[in-house]
Amino acid sequence: MGGSMGSTVGDKITHLIEYATNQLLPLILVCASRGARMQEGSLSLMQMAKISSALYDYQTNKKLFYLSILTSPTTGRVTTSFGMLGDIIIAEPNTYIAFADKRVIERTLKKAIPEGSQAAEYLFQKGLFDSIVPHSLLKGVLSKLFQFHNFFSLTEK
């Protein structure tokens, strides 16, 4: 439904993280969602906490490597949960990234927000994530990141 995250999606992502944790595997999640499915009410909202909790165990207790890739759109609970929790966060160019839609923010604040303030390029300048990588270069960048990760993992032992 509109690319939103419901409880089934939350379960699948949580199981994936738990599998990666148990197998000591690096993790890449590609985010493309309009947020949580409000029709499911609190069940949908709890996915954020469930996924974040699984990632906490993965990153903090097991010290494993999680890379988040933000594609367009990445909004709502997906942004605030697993989208922004990566050890490294990459966005594709011109990606729409936000917690809430522009009209919702403007209606809540009762003032206009700057045009383009929810674009990857603007948010990168503000330090929200690590890099903007075009899709055509993503494979090479990911390969280098995992080589660096493996090198530093071996030198720490």
From TrEMBL:
Lineage, uppermost ranks: Eukaryota, Viridiplantae, Streptophyta, Embryophyta, Tracheophyta
Subunit: Acetyl-CoA carboxylase is a heterohexamer composed of biotin carboxyl carrier protein, biotin carboxylase and 2 subunits each of ACCase subunit alpha and ACCase plastid-coded subunit beta (accD).
Protein name: CoA carboxyltransferase N-terminal domain-containing protein
Top-level lineage group: Eukaryota
Zinc-finger in keyword set: yes
PANTHER family: ACETYL-COENZYME A CARBOXYLASE CARBOXYL TRANSFERASE SUBUNIT BETA, CHLOROPLASTIC
GO molecular function per UniProt: ATP binding; transferase activity; zinc ion binding
Domain (CoA carboxyltransferase N-terminal) ranges: 1-157
Keywords: ATP-binding, Metal-binding, Nucleotide-binding, Transferase, Zinc, Zinc-finger
InterPro entries associated with the record: AcCoA_carboxyl_beta (IPR034733), Acetyl_CoA_COase_Trfase_b_su (IPR000438), ClpP/crotonase-like_dom_sf (IPR029045), COA_CT_N (IPR011762)
